[in-house]
Design goal:
Rossmann fold, binds nicotinamide-adenine-dinucleotide, seven-stranded parallel β-sheet
Length: 251
């Protein structure tokens, strides 16, 4: 899909590593100028430099999506550097190292924190970016959901179900501005965060039930992300695309 994002400016949150890093590289390879945004500023810098080293155009921006002010500063940095915003990938979330606590007895403040980052963080970024997209005549947003949205996966899964709802609802509000919003729901994808957070035998058990019997790699998700940002999906909005090796259709 080389060149399909030529002249576009795309922000990818949570792109200091894992899937987000894969998205940032793919978006750059498709021709876009990339804002590599993450709480981990050093990691974001490393990824942006590596994209530049490969001949791409990228800038690193530190952002905390738990703060509206920080999200607005991220959007302002994109506009100051590249003149505007055409695409936003809401990939940042609490996933690696997350504690899985009982909904009935777990720490309620922690429950609220996961929601604040995983769900409200995506909305904060949309609120910070949509005006620039509108000024440029439209844009495309990709939210990162998860197949966990359709499983009993505790607070994390519920936040991803919330992301699906946010995607559908915002599609209506943003449609009048020619801004599209869709989501990707990945299955188990082989990142440090997954390996550190879910025991290997649990992942292997899931993989054994999938049609394609392997973990996903970040690269397996990138084509869908670039497609959803590009004009090839110009009449698609409010959709949740599952990319999971054929796991959830069997459940
Ligand atoms: N790996 C999987 O199996 C899998 C499956 C489905 C969905 N997902 C989703 O994909 C995304 C990336 O997952 P990953 O496996 O690469 O995990 P990851 O933990 O490596 O990625 C999350 C990124 O978000 C950043 N981040 C966290 N809090 C932030 C904040 N407040 N502000 C800004 N950035 C923040 C982290 O620094 C990190 O770089 C997440 O949304 C996750 O829920 C992952």
């Amino acid at each position: 899909m080389s060149g399909v994002l030529e002249e576009k400016v795309v922000i990818v949150t949570g792109s200091a590593g894992g899937i987000g890093e894969g998205y940032a590289r793919a978006v750059s390879e498709a021709g876009a100028k990339v804002v590599v945004a993450d709480l981990d500023e050093g990691g974001a810098k490393r990824v942006a430099e590596s994209i530049q080293g490969a001949g791409g155009d990228a800038v690193a921006v530190g952002v905390d999506i738990a703060s509206g002010e920080s999200c607005r500063a991220m959007a302002e940095a994109a506009v100051a550097t590249y003149g505007g915003i055409d695409g936003l990938v809401n990939n940042a979330a609490l996933f690696g190292g997350i504690k899985h606590e009982s909904l009935l007895r777990g720490d309620f403040d922690y429950y609220l924190k996961i929601f604040d980052i995983n769900m409200h963080g995506a909305l904060r970024c949309v609120r910070a970016c949509f005006r620039s997209m509108r000024e440029r005549g439209g844009g495309a947003i990709v939210n990162q959901s998860s197949t966990a949205a359709w499983m009993p996966a505790g607070t994390y899964g519920i936040t991803k179900l919330g992301i699906n709802g946010l995607t559908r609802d915002l599609a209506t509000e943003l449609g009048d501005m020619n801004i599209r919003i869709n989501a990707i729901a990945p299955g188990p994808t082989d990142t440090e965060a997954l390996r550190g957070g879910v025991p290997g035998e649990v992942i292997d058990g899931i993989v054994s039930q999938m049609a394609l019997k392997r973990r996903g790699q970040p690269e397996d998700l990138c084509g869908t992300c670039v497609f959803l940002l590009s004009d090839a999906s110009a009449w698609m909005t409010g959709q949740i695309l599952t990319v999971d090796g054929g796991h959830t259709f069997r459940v």
